[in-house]
Each structure stands twice: as C-alpha cells, then as structure tokens.
C-alpha cells in the first residue's frame, strides 16, 4: 500500500515537472507569491506602526495642551501672589513688619 502510494506520488511529480519551461514558470510564480506575501505583511505592519505613532502624537499633543494651561494658571497665580499690596499686607500680618522708622535703614555703597 505504501509502495503504491509512493509510486503514485512519484509519477504525479514526474508529470508535473516534465516540461522545464513549466517548472521554471512554477518556480517564478512561487517566488512572486512569497515576495507578494512578505510585502503585504510588511505593509500591514507599517500601517499598524503609523497608527500607533498617530495615537502617540495625539496623546502627546493633549498632554502638551494640558501642561500649557497649567503653566498659564501657575503664572497667573505667581502674578497674583507677588503684587506689592499683597506682599505688604502679608508682611504686616504674618511677619509683623511695617514701615521702617528713622535710623533703621542703612545705605550701603556698592562701589569700592
């Protein structure tokens, strides 16, 4: 049974490759199919990478906008907290500082 199957397969293979031009065409077709498959898989992989990069860019852009807003809020808070009027009132209430009396201010000459 096994010998019969082997001879049938061998006969079938001999029939298939009996013509050298047909065998060459078959080899070229196989190579073309393999190259097409590899290029197709590469195209799918590149498309997935482009989509992933797009998502990353979108996430980074949203984070950048959020950080810009936070920066503007912090700048505004610094401007509010460092106004001369607020600094004077905090100096009086928290540090018990006031306008200097006569003799408390000394002038230092920075020139040698």
Structure notes:
With 112 residues, the protein is mainly alpha-helical. It has a domain at 27-94. Helices cover 79% and strands 0% of the residues. The chain is built from three helices and no strands. The chain has helices spanning 2-16, 20-81, 84-94. The radius of gyration is 42 Å and the shape is rod-shaped.
Provide the gyration radius in Å.
Answer: 42 Å
Q: How does the overall form come out from the CA principal axes? A: rod-shaped
Structural class: mainly alpha
Strand count, sense and barrel status of the largest sheet are: none
Beta-strand segment tally: 0
Strand content: under 5%
Give the oligomeric state.
single chain
Can you summarize this structure?
By secondary structure, the protein is mostly helical. The chain is built from 3 helices and no strands.
List the helices and strands and how they pair.
Layout: H1 2-16, H2 20-81, H3 84-94
Tags for this entry?
112 residues, mainly alpha, 3 helices, rod-shaped
